[in-house]
Amino acid sequence: MHTLSSLFHNCPSYTVYAMASSSNYFSSFSRASLPLFFFFFLLLLHSDASAKLSTDFYAQSCPQVFDTVKSVVKSAINQEKRIGASLLRLLFHDCFVLGCDASVLLDDTPTLLGEKTAKPNNNSLRGFEVVDRIKTAVEKLNGPSWEVKLGRRDSRKASFNKANTDIPPPTSSLANLTAAYAKKGLSVGDLVALSGAHTIGKARCISFRDHIYNDTDINGSFAKLRQANCPCTSGSGDNNLAPLDLQTPTVFDNDYFNNLISFKGLLHSDQELYNTSGSSSAALVKSYSRSTAAFFDGFVAAMIKMSDIRPLTGKRGEIRKNCRKVN
Ligand code: HEM
Ligand SMILES: *[C@@H]1O[C@H](CO)[C@@H](O)[C@H](O)[C@H]1NC(C)=O
Ligand SMILES: *[C@@H]1O[C@H](CO)[C@@H](O)[C@H](O)[C@H]1NC(C)=O
Ligand SMILES: *[C@@H]1O[C@H](CO)[C@@H](O)[C@H](O)[C@H]1NC(C)=O
Ligand SMILES: *[C@@H]1O[C@H](CO)[C@@H](O)[C@H](O)[C@H]1NC(C)=O
Ligand SMILES: *[C@@H]1O[C@H](CO)[C@@H](O)[C@H](O)[C@H]1NC(C)=O
Fold first, then answer.
1. Is 264 in contact with 227 (CB distance < 8 Å)?
2. Over 50: is that where the pLDDT of 145 sits?
3. Does residue 211 carry a catalytic annotation?
4. Which domains occur in the chain, in start order?
5. Which single residue of 19, 122, 127, 173 could bond 86 by disulfide (Cβ 3.0 to 4.6 Å)?
6. How far is the CA of 119 from the centre of ligand 2 (A)?
7. How many Cα neighbours within 13 Å face the side chain of 59?
């Protein structure tokens, strides 16, 4: 038996930030998103097949956890809108490296080389302080006790190398992306749906310079617009930011797909999904551009699938006291 506070003291880091990114997901939707948020969140908890925690259980015994996570994320988003996007991306970068086990949160130590400075993450991943704040807030909760059987647990290791090899770079071709997702048990459909996350958030010039100067599958006036704040010389203005979604950069909608159809994707890898009209990814891009509902359905299903990559359950892993450190 654990007390409520000890459960949350023991709340796996993974859960803390998976909830953070799902409640971000909620906050980023333009409207009518509450049911969708809970649908996603509850399924996320459910997706751990061996856990005995039920959705009812969480809803009845511990409604505070939802509100606590939501309120910390909300206040973080009020301070900076982009943080929602950053939290969502954290989940992706965790799940693709050793599975969804919070390995991405570990700081480097003399004996552990973490993932934070791997190429896709260094000077790019953000939101770690918000995860820390959520963990602190959640640990302050008091309440009744109940038995906690199994749940998602935190890894004791990290992989700098796999963070470099398994998270696809923005220079990837469609074939590269398809292979990277297949390696994680994800389909082209999942790839297209999950890429829709680029409807929010920002990228650095270094991530899209080649695309706006050298690719031909880009609208000329859009390329010019982005070139204005991203010099062609490598090393100059590398960290200048541009929104991933030209039209509604802070709203979670399907405009990402409309951008691709008009060749206004910001990353080379984005535009690859709609490069050759005959590809199966292009057909999906079209259908998501026509229906927000279809995109949301596809996104939720693919997020759940991604969150299911190699969860640590039972006695594997541990429950970290501090999100950033192995116990
Ligand atoms: C398909 C393969 C993907 C590639 C190649 C890719 C690449 C990138 C790159 C290069 C950036 C900009 C980073 C920077 O310049 O600092 C970025 C940002 C972002 N990515 Fe992806 N990404 C992919 C898939 C995903 C997925 C699956 C998600 C989440 C479900 C996601 C969510 C985000 C978000 C929200 C941002 C903005 C983060 C912020 O503003 O802090 N991406 N991505
Ligand atoms: C990460 O970026 C910093 C600059 O902020 C750089 O000094 C460091 O070498 C980079 N680390 C790796 C592993 O590339
Ligand atoms: C992408 O695919 C090409 C051609 O198969 C290959 O040479 C390259 O190494 C791949 N790049 C990545 C990042 O996987
Ligand atoms: C564009 O391509 C040329 C030729 O491959 C290369 O020399 C140049 O560095 C590229 N420019 C940018 C901004 O990527
Ligand atoms: C994507 O478009 C570019 C430029 O039009 C082209 O050179 C490249 O081969 C295309 N990639 C694929 C996979 O078709
Ligand atoms: C590129 O985008 C501009 C601005 O939206 C538009 O006026 C133009 O027609 C587009 N160019 C092409 C070739 O579609």
1. no
2. no
3. no
4. 6-163 (1.10.520), 186-305 (1.10.420.10)
5. 127
6. 8
7. 9
CA dist list (Å): 224 to 228, 248, 302 = 6, 19, 34
Catalytic residue among 2, 9, 46, 93: 93
Considering every ligand atom shown, identify the ligand nearest to the alpha carbon of residue 166 and give its number: 3
First to last CA, the chain: 21
Q: What is the pLDDT of residues 212-238, one digit of tens each?
A: 999 999 999 999 999 999 999 999 999
Q: Ligand 1 centre and the CA of 28: distance in Å?
A: 16
Tens of pLDDT, residue by residue over 4-22, are 222 333 334 544 455 555 4
pLDDT in tens, 268-293: 999 999 998 788 999 999 999 999 99
Instruction: Please tell me whether 97 is known to bind a ligand.
Output: yes
- Find the 215 Cα to ligand 4 centroid distance in Å: 10
Amino acid at 252: F
The confidence score (pLDDT) of residue 59 equals 53
> Across all residues in the chain, what is the average pLDDT?
82
For ligand 2, whether the C-beta of 124 sits within 6 Å is no
Nearest ligand 4 atom to alpha carbon 213: 13
According to DSSP, the residues that pair with 256 across neighbouring strands are none
| Ligand nearest the Cα atom of residue 214 | 4
Helix ranges (H only) for 142-254 are 160-166, 174-182, 188-195, 205-214, 220-227
